[in-house]
Amino acid sequence: GGxxxxxxxxxxxxxxxxxxxxxxxPALIGSHIxxxxxxxxxxxxxxxxxxxxxxxxxxxxxxxxxxxxxxxYIIPLTIIFGFYLSMAISLITSTRNVPGELQGxxxxxxARKKVAVTVLVFVAVFAICFAPFHAFMLFFYFNDxxxxxxxxxxxxxxxxxxxLCYINSCANPVALYFVSGAFRKHFNSLQFVENGALNTHLxxxxxxxxxxxxxxxFIGNQFILMHDNARxxxxxxxxx
Length: 240
What we know:
single chain; 240 residues; mainly alpha; 2 domains; two-stranded antiparallel sheet; 64% helix; extended; transducer; transmembrane; Neuropeptide CCHamide-1 receptor-like
């Protein structure tokens, strides 16, 4: 029932926070001030270093960098790529079962293909945004000569990768703007003034064709949406 679902939701949220706290304990305990000295043993600067080098027989930094690379990048990328690719394939293959002679079906086929491209773009955005950061970390901690090879290129590459990680949080709407006509039309209507008045109109047909209809195979055999004039929009889908 509703109470059971609420308890499960609360327990899940609490469990996520507890797990996040446990994962942060090593950094909380092990972070320390590290002195960076030159060849003449002259102190150049000090940094807050999150990896105690003496842990795990001086292998702790490599273990943590590799663990983060796998847990925060490779595994999530593999999972979302698998699911999104399956979704895209289902959307594309389902167009073969749509009767082409029915009115408006060609537009629905194009809309589904657009959604298939959209979900794959999201995977590409995730991969691109986090790849530079992890590439630098792997280079710096697994290359024994990284200190000698560290150059302005690697310095700016590190900053670039760090910024891309945060840009990923706002990249999906930007990508959606370029691949979804309905999203782009609605966004433009909210941002630009036409004839001195704000145009916020987005027709139900646009929403159906660009957003709802492409996902019909994942909803069920039939769905009905009511327009404001009480005329139902009905589409018989094909269950994937």
